[in-house]
Amino acid sequence: MRRFDDQTVLVTGGTGGQGASHVRAFHAEGANVVIGARDAERGAALADELGARACAIPLDVTDESSWSSALQAAENAFGGLNVLVNNAGVQNPPALLEDTDEATWSRILGTNLTGTFLGIRAAVPALRRAGGGAIVNIGSTMGLGGTALYAPYVAGKWAVRGLTRTAALELGRDRIRVNAIHPGVIATSFIREPAAGATAAIADSYSPEPFASRDSANRPT
Q: What is the CATH number of domain 8-218?
């Protein structure tokens, strides 16, 4: 028996690098997977690739009505919901705090923090109807320590940690587990391609080129 046989899992941001990986992993373990994505065509293509036990639904995590429609579609498709993975996230272009405009701040926190809050709130009734389940919030190592030039993203991911702990305390009595995981740097398009409004990818910050001109004896090991 596979670990998620007869379980239904909704993954937000389900067509991105990490999101698609989550979707494929749950599906391989027997789950019915619901791919939540803004890009309907990419979501449908992934669902078609997986075949049985997969469906795609349009989902804007910043929109409360979109969440309501998504949860209803998930229950209609597979009869219930057992796991929510709040994976959808966006990154801000690198900028000093003093140069970060309010629109960028609001956009990043709207997806990364408010989107997670709306997802938890929308999923709770369905998880209760299923007799319990799990909510997994995707954080970041940037939510464990300050990172220069990424204040909106860092602030949002720090806040997700607190939101997760509060939700866990409140929902444990309903047999709903709430946890956050905090990945480090993963080679997906999220870091290989510039964020909206940026000219360089985050991955450029991890390039070994700054050490290229140094004597090998002085290179870090």
A: 3.40.50.720
